[in-house]
Amino acid sequence: MDTTTDAAVTTRGLVKRYGTNTALHGIDLDIPRGSVFGMIGPNGAGKTTTMRLLLDILRPSAGELRVLGETPRLGGAALRRRIGYLPGELHLATRVKGRELLAHYAEISGPVRPGAVDALADRLGVDLGRPVRSLSKGNKQKIGLIQAFMHEPELLVLDEPTSGLDPLVQQEFHAMLHEAKANGQTVFLSSHVLSEVQQTAHEIAILKQGRIVERSTVAALREDAVRHVRLVVAEADAAAARATLDALPGVSGVAPAGDGPGTVAFSATLDAHVDAFVKAVARLDVVDLTVEEPDLEEMVLAYYGTDLTADADDAEGTTRKGARR
Amino acid sequence: MNTVLPLFRRSLADGWRGLLGWTGGLLVALFLYLPLYPSFGGNGQLQEIVDMMPPELVQSLGYDQIGSGPGYVQATFYGLIGFVLATIAAVGWGTGAIANDEENGQLELTLAHGVTRGQLYAERTAAVLVKLAWLALVSVVVVMVLNEPSELGIEFGDLVATAVAYFGLVALSAAAAIAVGGLTGRRTWSLGAGAGIAVYGYAMNALGNQGEDVRWLHDWSPYSWAYADAPLENGWSELTWLLFAVSAVLLVLGWLVFRRRDVAV
After folding, report:
1. Strand segments (E) across A33-114
2. Separation CA A239–CA A260 (nearest Å)
3. Residue from the list A58, A80, A325 with its beta carbon closest to the beta carbon of B113
4. pLDDT at A158 over 90
5. Strands A251-257, A186-191: pairing kind
């Protein structure tokens, strides 16, 4: 795997089975060093399983897995010191204070710069002097983020990192991700919705029932997204406009819509490049043109498919998560 | 930064309240029971009561030697209340070491750090054993303190032998709970193993006390390994080592599987 030595995470045909359940059906991933990579998928798609495999909490059933150039099993504790991990379900029930708990995690992770913990706590706005178990869900999540970030690991593995965080803290968190990337750190984060990763991740993988159904970049997704357009032309141009729209590839659902006197409006959906569309309609006497911002979320939901609920048990998460409390 | 045995120290730091509580419980039991001996047991009064009880019950409770100081301490504390208290503590701590932590989701985060599974298992086991040894030590100190005023007539060497057997017996329950936690990660199984081995040992011992034809049941009872030879009167029993041997086998088994299996499944 010479070509992957500069990758932070590489998997080939990664399979994870729990008894007869197959959680991951052969995942191929390449996460370049210094990138922010988002994995999205519905609950139970296998996101948490993938991340736990990287940390050697789970062992693969088949396939290859390399993290920072080593297999998690052989890399052991030394490898994990180079990783910061935020579990998807963070349970912090201890009576000890935040500062004490973080000091403990600092002892068993990579070296933490003096002041790093307090700086992060200030940024995220969490009181480290309180017993951890008395903190709200969002504040526990902040403790989780601090322990993942505090030793400036080469790789950050963050499972649904923004859950429970208010919007302001989410912004701060996004800033932390940008800084991590600027530092050359690699970030691998997951979410069940695109909006949480699209601001920070360039590359994304969409996971469904243990398979990667799409690998893309946020930019490419946006380019391919279905947009709703509304074109208003002078009445004299109506026939020409209709003909132009009908002839354009990627334009569908053309329908006249009501408009003011002297003009005619058409609405349509566009699932091709905006560029061709704009150039085609430029020849017309355009009174108004509206291209709605694409709803990427809707697009991702289309990947999730409609048969999810029926087959959800086939995948890992639903039985793993929350089954045992 | 001090990085020697971080998980061991964390376990002790997390558990000091509990340890204090169990220590208090033992102290209360010891200071309630032992000072009663001179007025109650030493003058033969207790022996008279015991003589009136059904012999099967006396055998089951191990009260047949209650008329002597060592027999009294054995029957009331090491064989009964002290055994029950320390066993509950041992099972609780043993379950907490792996299974409980795994089920409530905290083990995953610890293992995601720069520690190995074997290290975590070993350090947490050590913490449990140290706490149990502390309880045994407390019993030794208190019995020695009360030995004269309560006219118990216990030899120090015999007391140490008994405390070691006592420690071995409750450590076996802890080891079973830890090992099953390592094997399965399930709280109920872990708890069941720890409590089950204690109940089983006590029951086999009580049944074996009922007569010569069932005496062989003692061979299969950890409780009998610890106490059947009455170490508080007779000193070191050669069966005590079996407690530690079985504990060691269980712990190694749990350790081997824990290093290999999936966590937090």
Report:
1. 36-40, 62-67, 83-86
2. 17
3. A80
4. yes
5. unpaired
Which residue did the predictor score with more confidence, A74 or A4?
Answer: A74
ipTM of predicted complex:
0.86
Q: Which of B14, B109, B190, B259 to mutate to test the interface with A (most CBs of A within 10 A)?
A: B109
Which is higher by pLDDT, B59 or A286? A286
Lowest-confidence range among A218-222, B100-104, B258-262? A218-222
Does the beta carbon of A78 lie under 8 angstroms from any beta carbon of chain B? yes
pLDDT tens digits for A64-83?
A: 999 999 999 999 999 999 99
Which residues make beta-bridge pairs with A289?
A231
Distance from C-alpha of A223 to C-alpha of A202, rounded to nearest angstrom: 14
Q: Is residue A325 pLDDT above 60, yes or no?
A: no
- Over residues A266-288, the mean pLDDT reads 85
Is B12:B131 a contact under the CB 8 Å cutoff? Answer: yes
- In the DSSP assignment, the letter for residue A294 is P
- Tell me which chain A residues have a C-beta less than 8 angstroms from the C-beta of B106: 91-94
What domains can be seen in chain A, in order of their start residue?
A: 2-82+154-222 (3.40.50.300), 226-293 (3.30.70.260)
A114 touches chain B (CB under 8 A): no
Interface check for B13 against chain A (CB to CB < 8 A): the answer is yes
Tell me, what's the pLDDT at B67?
79
Domain ranges of chain B: 6-260
- pLDDT at A3 > cutoff 90: no
Contact A87 B109 (CB under 8 A): yes
Chain A hits for B185, CB-CB cut-off 8 Å, are none
What is the amino acid identity at position B110?
T
